């Protein structure tokens, strides 16, 4: 996995969640708090999720084969989607079930200092993990807002870790509130309500992750900045006079496919066109290094043919960007 995959953030989150899961489960055994049980399962599920992200990154590094000629870059999207399923089923649904049972059959907390101490420790550990994820994300986020970064990021790992850590911190606050109210009122129902809120939170986060990774699995185009760089790199103003139409597709977070029909002059020789295409491919790779699979098809731009086409984008002639007469 490349640095942009947020390996450091994943490893930090994995270490924190394993330690927290053990501490929460011990607190549950001593106190009987359903919030603690739900939180321990949540942390255990998060640990498994980070393992899935690391496994997906490893599998994505496999070389292309005749059966998979574009490689395995999308493995990272598949494993990120599995994370959302695990978070929904193991984390969210289990917490809702535990919360319902606790509300239906409440009982007082025993050894209250165990869950309170563990929750304070978990908040500190998750804060450190969250800070690492934020620091790694800021290297790539640029001027994007956090919501824009999560929606537009092509590498799924950092958005997953960010949302998981955020959900974990909010869940810990909810658990601490539930335990605190249960202690203050002597009514264990509050512990169950806190657990129920944790479950709802995890399901909402899982749905957001599922929607974002589904879009990546379906295939997303390059970002607007990269598209502009590619368009600028293709046209040389001499042999390549314009772009008739172009399509881009992420084969993986760090691998982009570029397919374009380009406009060339009608009196250029085949050798001149081939040389211009090679030069255009080199310029594209210099401008956007992740553009590793490039197909450029030369054509003679015709304004009349473009105007007559039922669908100009699909017609053989155009429309051409920067082409003469357009």
TrEMBL record:
Domain called Cation efflux protein transmembrane: residue spans: 11-218
Membrane spanning residue stretches: 6-30, 77-97, 112-134, 160-183, 189-211
InterPro entries: Cation_efflux, Cation_efflux_CTD_sf, Cation_efflux_TM, Cation_efflux_TMD_sf, SLC30A9
Subcellular location, principal: membrane
Locations listed in the record: Membrane
Disordered as annotated region, ranges: 307-326
Record's bilayer topology term: Multi-pass membrane protein
Keyword Transport set for record: yes
Gene3D superfamilies named among the record's database cross-references: Cation efflux protein transmembrane domain (1.20.1510.10)
Coiled-coil portions: none
Domain of life: Bacteria
Name of the protein this chain belongs to: Cation diffusion facilitator family transporter
Species per Swiss-Prot/TrEMBL record: Streptomyces physcomitrii
